[in-house]
Amino acid sequence: MDVGSQQRGQWTSKIGFIFAAAGSAIGLGNIWRFPYITGQNGGAAFVFVYLMCILVIGLPYLYAELALGRYVHKNPVGAIRAIRPGSAWVLIGGLGVVTGLGILSYYAVIAGWTVGYIFKMAIPNQITFGEFVANPYLVVSLFAFFILITILVVYGGVQNGIERWSKILMPLLFVLLLGLIVYANFLPGSGKGLAFYLKPDFSKITGKVVLAALGQAFFSLSLGMGLMITYGSYLSKEDNLISSGFYVALADTAIAIMAGLIIFPALFAMNQNPAAGPGLVFQVLPAIFLHMPGGVIVGMIFFLLLSIAALTSTISLLEVPTAYLVDEKRVARKVAVWIVGGLTFLIGLPSALSQGAVSWLSKPIVGGMEFLSLMDFVWGNISLTVGAFFLSIFVGWVWGAKHAATELQQGNPAFARWAPFWSFLIRFVTPVFIFIILLNLFKFFG
Ligand code: PFF
Fold this sequence. Notes:
Blueprint: H1 14-25, H2 28-40, H3 44-72, H4 76-83, H5 90-122, H6 129-133, H7 136-155, H8 158-185, H9 190-198, H10 207-220, H11 227-232, H12 241-269, H13 280-291, H14 295-328, H15 333-352, H16 359-362, H17 371-409, H18 419-444
Helix pairs in contact: 1-8, 1-12, 1-14, 2-10, 2-12, 3-4, 3-9, 3-10, 3-12, 3-17, 3-18, 4-5, 5-7, 5-14, 5-15, 5-17, 7-14, 7-15, 8-12, 8-14, 9-12, 10-17, 10-18, 13-14, 14-15, 17-18
Bound molecules: 4-fluoro-L-phenylalanine (PFF).
4-fluoro-L-phenylalanine binds near residues 27, 316 and 317.
């Protein structure tokens, strides 16, 4: 089926949607971002708060986006416009589109590093991670390459592009991670890492930790910018949103937890600093591959699979602004993809150059963050959290939790029993909780 400018796509099967949505959710967020944020926020206590955030906020909120998306069959802007035409709510959909661009701009930079690392693993006489990311030609061409690949896949339309890839490669990643967990936990000294990761010291939970955990929950599940509205819009009425959403959240959380089970034992075995920041995974993992029998091959396969996991996520990030241009501005899909991709490249350049290539971009700007970390904080944490705040109010109060629950019941009649509880979560718990956390943020900045 061709997804032209007029015609919208649809997933071929329930499993196709699960793989595509899981493909969006599972990515650098699980394997690059989750370990580095966990390391910066003190370990196990953060992991505990993160899991609570997934269960109490993330999963119920995921259902809200899916319900809205399937109900109106539109991108976030179109979805809101369909429910409340001519209202200012449409700005929230717009925020989602902009956030997609913002996240993609630096996400594709990191994804470019992972591609570079496939080859770097094979070359002896390694340059260090610091030297690698400070080389402007290298990082910019890898970044451009990654955007190009993303464009070419999204070009193919919903099912040809996105579905086919996710189905084969995600299970492979899972198996490789399992093997690496076993290996990392046999390294001498790894026990301390496991304790750091799994034995919570609850006194470490602060407002900053909760904000980081909540932001990570949204980021990892691809929530807060209407991606799941967009993906849900390609679902049909027979699909079971409840079970599909649950599997997506489960797979996503499992992969993140697994990544931590590799990184922290390995990191402590090598006496490295868990709070090293965005470079963490790129410094720790190659070091263990280097000492492993057959490590070059394992390392290459690992970074290849990670690049592909990142690709299924960049595809989804590109899809939101693209669907907006296609549905709302009547731009042909093939043109829209190039517009969005080109724009992303320009916006992403400073991030690409902020790891040593250009010195003023690499210096701390606010809160000790250089340009890329700042982009990650602004778009990957704050913007998603603010987006989820308004969207939960929109679904819970404006469209109405009743309508949303009716939509969720289609394809899963048994949900009727849970509907009141879900409505309570989406109307009260989610927005109030986010509001308190955000207030804390402003206090945090004085
Ligand atoms: N969830 C993706 C990850 O964890 O890598 C990142 C992401 C994709 C965030 C799509 C938001 C989004 F809409």
